[in-house]
Design goal:
The chain is an alpha/beta fold and 647 residues long. The protein contains 26 helices and 16 strands. Helix 10 crosses helix 24 and helix 11 packs across helix 16. The longest helix has 35 residues. The C terminus is likely disordered. Bound molecules: FE(4)-NI(1)-S(5) cluster (NFS) and iron/sulfur cluster.
Length: 647
């Protein structure tokens, strides 16, 4: 069976098989058949009278022991996924905001304000008075305003990071629906409370609360992304490489895996200073840090650190036999890494108090002595390197060039080199004249139910041919980076004629001496808000709402609860979302119908399920063409209804 889109990865899967090491693909086969009740969302474990399983076909067992219907059970299960995803993202954001507060109070020697311009821009965005405010006190005010989004008591208010970051028309719509959030943590606990046994039994009411929680997720992600930029710098275009071929025989290879840049930035800093120790241990190249999952995206964007792999193939990094240490923080870390690393010389090290793995070395980062702890961790990697078994070494040859670092600011700066007065105009003009038909944001995970990266790559190739520009984040961005879709050559190979013309023009005008890549890497999953910032800037410039833009999102291999949370706020902001797998809702025709159809009448956005990537691309193309018609984009520019972009 070919499990992996990437052929060189396939040979590593076979290596693991010959060494009798089970990986995610084998564990999936052993788990089959998966529970049909769970897959449809009609298993309820919320109270101890159950668990109850609804019979999806007959009258018998049509409600739970308490009388809860399939609709109620499915809706409750779904919004609990949203709440979990929201808590994961927003806790990450809260930790970053607290760190900025520590900087402002002079309580940390490790972190500082790296991007003063971004700090001032954020203050301006959040309507904070900046005149006469020195940098460090201003950092304190921005941190306080962000932390207020987690603690506000007045339910009538709206989170700063929601209120000030979306178009006015969208905000008004959300207000009317009563689904704005005043308090991120409050929206999460609201979900947990209303889904307790015997509370909310109205599926639609439950789903609306789920959308509110999803907007809390959006707000927390804004905090995480923006305040990380203040502390660590706003990404700018950077060239690097991706795929497991970035591991080196002549280096101490250290993978950093997880999500929170507060940890990975320390490791990166300290590793630079310890190169000599690695060389002394015999690794002539020194230390080679590589990234996995969203931490990989964060350090790729900010430091050009190569990306080894995305979610599904994380175990394969160890199977190469070349990985000396894997340092993990939170989220999307397979517990199986403990067993797999035990079969090799690889040191697996957990670093967060809320994300330990039984039996695995735990060295906590995040307190005052973090630098010393980071040194200890890297020394462990160097020691492990000395035990590497060259006979088991199998580093794939394949690695691909990637140009990453396309924050909204970087894109606007780049366009500004063409028109400094009105930086967005080169992009907008080309959308209006149809040389760029529209924009698709690819986000989300890998899922073992899909051949890894296959949906991303297949869809992108078709969309690019149709002159659609692609933005990507998270493990989706990882898929494109590994499969050579994030470099100038990809523009030559895959972009349709007019898209190629525009990307070539923009790339040369911006001084890159080559076309822009056709898939722009915007960062990790929390960085999905970067693409929203860009879309909001375009919408505001055109005087329209987000739902009117020729913009579609897609999570073709979604897996995590975080992906469900993101997908839910994407549709709430008015953007149609394609998913390549049905979320566990099919046990309720009511919930399925609301998500795939009724939502369109409520928030404009909706979920579209399509498992076949070719068909999915076709459906996205027709949505984009429909949106263009709605804006009257392809008729004469003189037409009365046409948006006056060139005025
Ligand atoms: Ni996003 Fe990043 Fe990847 Fe999915 Fe997991 S790493 S936060 S959840 S699997 S894209
Ligand atoms: Fe069953 Fe109702 Fe309890 Fe759920 S809450 S387990 S449906 S009795």
């Amino acid at each position: 069976m070919n499990d992996c889109y990437n052929c060189s990865d396939q040979s590593l899967i076979e290596k693991a098989e010959s060494e009798e090491i089970d990986l995610v693909w084998q564990r999936y086969e052993k788990m089959k058949p998966l529970c049909g009740f769970g897959e449809q969302g009609i298993c309820c474990r919320i109270c101890m009278k159950g668990p109850c399983r609804i019979n999806p076909f007959g009258r018998k067992r049509s409600v739970g022991i308490c009388g809860a219907s399939a609709d109620t059970i499915v809706a409750r299960n779904l919004v609990r996924m949203i709440a979990s995803g929201t808590s994961a993202h927003s806790l990450h954001g809260k930790e970053v905001a607290k760190t900025l507060m520590h900087v402002a109070r002079g309580e940390t020697a490790i972190y500082s304000v790296k991007d003063a311009i971004k700090l001032r821009n954020i203050a301006h965005k959040l309507n904070i008075e900046t005149d006469g405010n020195d940098l460090i006190p201003l950092a304190g005010v921005v941190a306080a305003n962000s932390l207020m989004d987690y603690s506000r008591m007045d339910d009538e208010e709206i989170c700063n990071w929601l209120k000030y970051t979306i178009p006015d028309a969208r905000l008004e719509k959300l207000k009317k629906l009563g689904i704005t959030t005043s308090n991120i943590d409050g929206s999460i606990s609201d979900i947990m409370a209303r889904t307790h046994v015997g509370t909310d039994a109205d599926a639609v009411n439950i789903l609306l609360a789920g959308l509110r929680c999803a907007l809390a997720d959006y707000s927390g992600m804004q905090v995480a992304t923006n305040l990380s930029d203040v502390l660590f710098g706003t990404p700018q275009p950077v060239v690097s490489q991706a795929s497991l071929g970035v591991l080196r025989k002549d280096a101490v290879n250290i993978a950093i895996h997880g999500h929170n840049p507060l940890l990975s930035e320390i490791i990166v800093d300290v590793a630079y200073k310890m190169q000599a120790e690695a060389v002394a241990a015999g690794a002539t190249y020194g230390i080679n840090i590589v990234g996995v999952c969203c931490t990989g995206n964060e350090v790729l964007l900010r430091h050009g650190i190569p990306l080894a792999t995305n979610y599904l193939s994380q175990e394969l990094a160890i199977i190469t036999g070349a990985l000396d240490a894997m340092i993990v923080d939170v989220q999307c870390i397979m517990p199986s890494l403990a067993k797999v690393s035990a079969c090799y010389h690889t040191e697996l090290i957990t670093t967060m108090p809320d994300a330990k793995i039984a039996g695995v070395t735990h060295i906590e980062l995040g307190s005052g002595d973090s630098l010393k702890k980071a040194e200890l961790i890297i020394r462990k990697a160097i020691d492990a390197y000395k035990n590497r078994d060259d006979d088991r070494l199998s580093i794939p040859a394949e690695k691909n060039k990637v140009i990453a670092g396309f924050s909204a600011e970087a894109i606007i700066d780049l366009l500004g080199s063409i028109n400094s007065e009105d930086p967005l105009s080169p992009l907008i003009e080309n959308i209006v004249n149809g040389k760029i038909r529209g924009i698709v944001l690819f986000a989300g995970c890998n899922n073992v139910k899909v051949k890894q990266d296959h949906n991303f790559v297949t869809m992108a190739q078709k969309l690019l041919k149709h002159n659609i520009l692609i933005l990507a984040t998270g493990c989706g961005a990882g898929a494109f980076a590994k499969n050579a879709l994030m470099n100038s050559e990809a523009t030559e190979d895959y972009a349709g004629d007019t898209l190629k013309e525009v990307l070539t023009f923009l790339g040369f005008e911006a001084g890159l001496n080559a076309p822009l890549p056709p898939v722009l890497h915007m960062g990790s999953c929390v960085d999905n808000v970067r693409s929203i910032d860009l879309a909001v800037a375009i919408a505001n410039r055109l005087g329209v709402d987000l739902n009117q833009l020729p913009l579609v999102a897609s999570a073709p291999e979604l897996m995590s609860e975080k992906a469900i949370a993101i997908g839910s706020w994407v549709v709430t902001l008015g953007i149609p979302l394609h998913v390549g797998l049905a979320p566990p809702v099919t046990g309720s025709s009511l919930v399925t119908n609301v998500l795939t159809s009724e939502l369109k009448n409520i928030v404009d956005g909706y979920f579209m399920v399509e498992e076949d990537p070719e068909e999915a691309a076709d459906k996205i193309i027709s949505i984009i063409e429909e949106k263009r018609l709605g804006l009257n984009l392809d008729s004469s520019l003189d037409s009365a209804n046409n948006i006056e972009v060139l005025s």
